[in-house]
Amino acid sequence: MSQQGYVATPPYSQSQPGMGLSPPHYGHYGDPSHAPSPPGMVKPAGPLGATNPGAVLPPGAPPPGPHQFGQNGAHASGQPPQRFPGPPPVNNVAPSYAPYQPSTQPSYLPSEATSSVTHLGTQLSAMQINNYGSGMTPPSQGSPGPLSATSFQGPPRPPQPSILQPGSQVLPPPPTVLNGPGAPPLPPTAHRQEGLPGPVPLSAQYQPPPPPGQALGAGYPPQQAANYGPQMAGAQLSYLGGFPTGPSQMAGPPQPQKKLDPDSIPSPIQVIEDDRATRGGQVYTTNIRGQVPPIVTTDCVIQDQGNASPRYIRCTTYCFPCTSDMAKQAQIPLAAVIKPFATIPSNETPLYLVNHGENGPVRCNRCKAYMCPFMQFIEGGRKYQCGFCNCINDVPPFYFQHLDHIGRRLDHYEKPELSLGSYEYVATLDYCRKNKPPNPPAFIFMIDVSYSNIKNGLVKLICEELKTVLEKLPKEEQEETSAIRVGFITYNKVLHFFNVKSNLAQPQMMVVTDVGEVFVPLLDGFLVNYQESQSVIHNLLDQIPEMFADSNENETVFAPVIQAGMEALKAAECPGKLFIFHSSLPTADAPGKLKNRDDKKLVNTDKEKLLFQPQTNVYESLAKDCVSHGCSVALFLFPSQYVDVASLGVVPQLTGGTIYKYNHFQMHLDSQQFLKDLRNDIEKKIGFDAIMRVRTSTGFRATDFFGAIFMNNTTDVEMAAMDCDKAVTVEFKHDDKLSEDTGALIQCAVLYTTIGGQRRLRIHNLGLKCSSQLAELYKSCETDALINFFAKSAFKAVLHQPLKVIREILVNQTAHILACYRKNCAGPSAVSQLILPESMKVFPLYMNCLLKNCVLLSRPEISTDERAYQRQLVMAMGVADSQLFFYPQLLPIHTLDVKNTELPAAVRCSESRLSEEGIFLLANGLNMFLWLGVSSPPELIQAIFNVPSFAHVNTDMTLLPEVGSPHSQQLRMTMNLLQQKRPYSMKLTIVKQREQSEMVFRQFLVEDKGLYGGSSYMDFLCCVHKEICQLLN
Ligand SMILES: [Zn+2]
User: Fold this and answer.
1) In the chain, fewer beta carbons within 10 Å around the N or the C end?
2) Which one has a higher pLDDT value, 997 or 99?
């Protein structure tokens, strides 16, 4: 991988607008030269200072709207910010902007030992101090073990003030000297300990617990108050004062009645439900440029009227700023998440296929953009002006058509490429390799037959299943049988090729022992038509498990396996896909041999990135070869220990393939999940040998690409294959001004080979608005797409940057985006108010969920392979999948209405939403949990599990029994609904409240403080608020 491929995405290391000595510029994550200037240099008149007269105000400062938070009035009046002479001390003394400073200290780290008491509002009585995750003793850092013992003792309690009472208080009382309102001014942390409401009142709670023996107070380096990270003495104590609750609270026992209602902070459930209520079930037409579509969780019918459906393209904002200065000021990434082969529901129109015969598609002579609704016909229809580069082109004679009185071609509505956002072209031979029509693709099944796979029955399971799934190979709609050919290889230390030619009585095996330089021992009879060779293939699949039954071979190769598959496709001159079923670290002597290099000591150091990088470059160059021959790799992993996913996953990741991972695979528990994945992967819609090009109108261009892709140059996205679930996230940058009149136009063209062997072009067009008003930009944002972008850019950066730096940048950019809004678009209000744009109400929450993902959390408890795996998954996700992945769906099953087929309304992912009388289903796209409260109604337990009580429920199951009761049917139907349209089969885990397995489940309650670290939503909001206040100062 060239370093260039991982250049950090611009917004991350931009200078801080408003801090402005050095011009804002883009650069690498963590590049110190790009670090922003110290906050002490903040100039209010900087870029942030430009007020925006046309700004659309959020629904007013006054009433406690769901998007507005301010400091408590009592507090604010008692401790007005003006009491601080000038800027807060933190700014004065801080030599630099701490979060950006390279440092080995833990950064934005879980506020492990701090409680989550927060207070945000100016809304006086409406706002009370709340404690999040009450009843839960925060773990001490590094020892999450005991946590399970202590934190699960009680049933979940609703947020109660009681945690603040002596006794239940998890924190030691603050030292007296810091308590009184009359305490002398101290460095920032001390201020917060006093409960003084400085503009940065909340930082302390983000600091991990102090190391034992560290002294409190005086030694606290002031600039660290601006940092999230350094473990400082007093961190634990300061949290109390960290909340603007007024000094009185600090002096005595906490006042339980003051509580910030968790319902008053923006709820993703509310956002989802509101969008559903206003736009669900309706027809959404794409005729308006820059129109923000319904969010991904809303079901509606999409009608293409000139712009690509949001199923194909979603943008972080549907209104681009006119100038790059504006873009840098707001720091909102300008990006599109493109899913070119997205599945379209049956009630929407499939793509039209345009065939111009030998003429091929009509394209602009200069920029090569394809004919589309953005081309303007002139001169009576003899010429057209390209909407992308403005070049005036002649209309080819075969394509001429007269114009009507408004200058539109008479055949406007007859030609998909003139009136629709998305359509396909039949490609001519010019678009084919060697100017020859492509051969239909082939699937090669490659089974690891080493000892353990034979022993545990996996090989037999795979062979049995293949007999069924091969009947369902994908085919063109009009065809009767699939054109896809199939081939079979088994391997351990050596490779076995099989001849399954239809005229053979028995399959023949050829062994290749020279794994150093793999060759394909047979061409004729290796790749065959399944229907023709069915009996030989079945014969082979029956024999394979027996064939290796006596093998004691434990060692495997891996790179030679991919090499062999790729060479076979190359020899057959066809694109294709390898299905590899693999279990172990490939330690046999061969190219791509790996050693166990899992080193937990690297976690939370600058070398942590090594864990995500492949340990050899063999796989990268292999991936490159695969892409150039249209060979995609789907990898099914069955690891019982470390297998180095970071290395093994490189080829699937770069070839548009997918990795599936089944830890400690157990036949009776996991086979259903695996088989569903296998069927789905074989049957899903897919294009092969694909090249994607994103063109834009003048003034901006695509600069960075994220996905399961490979790039040989800076513009062409190459994919050995691309399926219906894969999305490429594309970032755009200005290179000139954009015009409000013409907007910003995007055309994504994917050249590919269909499963039937046709070469086609799939075109998606999207027009966005442009504005010189920042408020318009914020109004048109889509949070789910933003999170997709941030996740992918951060996960890409993980390979090259310390995680600490990445986390800090994420937090900082969150604050920056919101601060810019606050400064330029929100109405006049107290500085202490947190004001969020309507379109980004849950942006901080989702960013916190991203920060808490195991990839970005530097915790040794989490398996290295799991982190590498999730990193690779997210890189290819579309917006709907990343939304669910970062914010799981939590459904109260006990409220299921058996007469109503609709899903129950989801609840927020927090322990406080659970009840011990309840049963809840949680899904995130990879996992599904059924959580049973200790007092679950026995009749419900009976209806679902067919056992008399909670105690009788056997949690060792991954499939629910078919009890036949309405509840059982309804629940299983609900689970199927959640599973639909998801690329991965979710494994079901039954979790009983207060049992050990609840630990795993709780990691998905993403609004709470994480078990392995990561702030609660409330804490994070306070943290961001504090950052914003600093920026505004
Ligand atoms: Zn052009």
Assistant:
1) N
2) 997
